[in-house]
Design goal:
This protein is mainly α. The protein contains 6 helices and no strands.
């Protein structure tokens, strides 16, 4: 009887060992898949960051080349800078973009702009032009620094 119990215990231990080994193997496979998935996510995030940086460079060059208004460039660049990792650093370093974007945030855009009467559009345009003139030197300096830092 003792011999039967002994062999029964050995079989149970072997079965439990095989089950445990199987689950350990599955856990390792899941870890490997998670690492691979995280790498894909990290690579995609890096690509997205590079696209944003390239967009910031293009916009900064466009500002220097007068291809877009200071207001439009400041708004677009400030949004892109805020989307980068370490946004607080960029917010501090490139404050002129944020300041002009905030100063002109109340001016309607797109469909809201189209519905404005001509007189109101002229008022907003004059205000925008004055704000751009006040911020022009700082925006140009920030654009040059963007091109230097992100090159």
């Amino acid at each position: 009887m003792m011999g039967v119990l002994f062999w029964l215990a050995v079989v149970i231990i072997l079965v439990l060992s095989v089950v445990a080994a199987h689950y350990l193997y599955r856990v390792e496979q899941l870890k490997k898949r998670n690492i691979a998935a995280q790498q894909i996510i990290d690579d995609a995030a890096q690509e997205q960051t590079q696209r944003r940086i390239k967009s910031i460079q293009i916009l900064a060059q466009g500002l220097l080349d007068k291809q877009l208004s200071f207001t439009e460039g400041a708004i677009r660049i400030s949004v892109l800078l805020d989307s980068l990792e370490g946004a607080e650093h960029y917010r501090d370093s490139y404050k002129p973009f944020h300041l002009l974007a905030e100063a002109t945030a109340h001016i309607p855009v797109l469909e809201a702009w189209k519905t404005l009467p001509i007189k109101k559009k002229l008022t907003f345009d004059n205000e925008r032009l004055k704000l751009e003139k006040d911020h022009q030197e700082f925006i140009i300096d920030a654009s040059l620094r963007v091109l230097k830092e992100f090159s």
